[in-house]
């Protein structure tokens, strides 16, 4: 076998191996989005909620590939802590110790590989919980594990 044929066959084998082993999978490098800043999003920052009332908590989520899960977390802010994603500052009452605070934490699955989903959760504020400053936090996770969240200050009276 002459020199040119030998390298021609070697080049063909390399070309065949490279073309058969190429990775065609698409990598998800984008976090999902979540917002309450739209007509119908609830609650808005600094909103006051009444004990004994039922509210529809709503947030809009999207992802470039597929959404997988979301959660809602309503907890007291009697110590004036903050969350790194809060944009608006509300007037807070004096700090106090929690006696019987509302703590509502629920996780949900999003089925059918959808790219857009509106969170819509009915929550009744119990009559016997401490009034005062609270946070409402939403989070969303896509099918590859990327997560986004948003939080707002609310007041329960």
Give the low-confidence spans.
none
Proportion in β-strands = 35-45%
Order of the strands making up the biggest sheet: 2-8-7-4-5
Count of individual domains: 1
The rough form would be described as: elongated
Order of helices and strands: HEEEEEEEE
**CATH fold name:** Immunoglobulin-like
**End-to-end distance, in Å?**
91 Å
Secondary structure: helix percent: 10-25%
Largest sheet: 5 strands, mixed
The CATH architecture classification is Sandwich
Assembly annotation:
single chain
Give the number of DSSP strands.
8
Q: Calculate Rg over CA atoms.
A: 25 Å
CATH class: Mainly Beta
Q: What do the pLDDT scores average to?
A: 88
Class computed from helices, strands and strand pairing:
mainly beta
Q: How many individual helices? A: 1
Describe this structure in words.
The N and C termini lie far apart (91 Å). Helix content is 11%, strand content 39%. The relative contact order is 0.29. The protein has one helix spanning 3-20, and strands at 33-35, 47-49, 54-62, 67-76, 104-109, 116-124, 132-142, 147-156. It has 1 helix and 8 strands. The chain has a 5-stranded mixed sheet, with no helix packed on it. It has a 3-stranded antiparallel sheet with strand order 1-3-6, with no helix packed on it.
Draw up the topology in text.
Layout: H1 3-20, E1 33-35, E2 47-49, E3 54-62, E4 67-76, E5 104-109, E6 116-124, E7 132-142, E8 147-156
């Amino acid at each position: 076998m002459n020199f040119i044929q030998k390298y021609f066959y070697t080049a063909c084998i390399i070309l065949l191996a490279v073309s058969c082993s190429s990775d065609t999978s698409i990598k998800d490098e984008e976090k999902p989005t979540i917002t309450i800043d739209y007509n119908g999003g609830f609650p808005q920052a600094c909103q006051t909620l009444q004990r004994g009332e039922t509210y529809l908590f709503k947030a809009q989520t999207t992802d470039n590939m597929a959404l997988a899960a979301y959660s809602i977390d309503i907890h007291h802010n009697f110590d004036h802590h903050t969350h790194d994603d809060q944009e608006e500052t509300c007037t807070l009452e004096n700090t106090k110790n929690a006696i019987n605070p509302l703590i509502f934490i629920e996780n949900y699955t999003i089925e059918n590989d959808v790219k857009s989903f509106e969170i819509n959760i009915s929550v009744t504020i119990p009559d016997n919980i401490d009034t005062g400053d609270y946070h409402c936090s939403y989070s969303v996770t896509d099918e590859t594990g990327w997560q986004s969240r948003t939080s707002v200050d609310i007041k329960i009276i």
